[in-house]
Amino acid sequence: MNNFERIVQWISSLFDRIAQWALAVTMVLLVANMLLRVVWRPIPGTYEIAGYLGAVVIGFALAWCGVKGRHIAITVLTDRFPKRVNIITGVIIDILSFAFFILAAWQCYRLGTSMLQSGELSPDLRFPFYPLVYGVGLGCLLLGLVYLVNVIKSITLESK
């Protein structure tokens, strides 16, 4: 389990670095577009490129957020539960989250394959959509694996 957890964390960290670069490129692109709009002409396709990079940022940062536990949690009710009930509740939520994100990854794969087969392209830049959909699907798959790691860790700690 320890090796699996380290591999998932390493890949999640790598994806997060890609998301960070995509965010930085988005900021540079948008600032450059605003400046060029004032002195010359805007960069063609900026809106589409920013949207594509936004998909990369969100899809690729998901798993690292899950690894670090930086997601939103509402614990008003569960803070009052006994520790054992909190652990069981956490495992159930992690199992449901795992199933949801694996299903989301599978649906992204199906949608990406459909877009690949149909040859669907963006309106302005004529860029294919399917690589972005596959990328978001990979991010969902990786987040699902993070939840699987959490489930395995919780169950193995509970059995000791």
Features:
single chain; 160 residues; mainly alpha; 4 helices; 0% strand
For the termini, the CA-CA separation is 15 Å
Q: Tell me the fraction of residues in β-strands, as a range.
A: under 5%
Specify Rg, calculated over alpha carbons. Answer: 20 Å
- Average pLDDT, rounded to a whole number, is 93
Give start-end ranges of low-pLDDT stretches: none
Order of helices and strands: HHHH
Helix content: over 70%
Largest sheet: none
Structural class of the helix and strand makeup? mainly alpha
Number of strands: 0
Quickly count the domains: 1
Question: What best-fitting shape do the alpha-carbon axes yield?
Answer: elongated
Annotation field: number of helices: 4
What do these coordinates show?
This protein has 160 residues and is an all-alpha fold. The protein is built from 4 helices and no strands. The chain has one domain (2-159). α3 (83-118) runs antiparallel to α4 (130-159). The two termini are 15 Å apart. The model has no long low-confidence stretch (mean pLDDT 93).
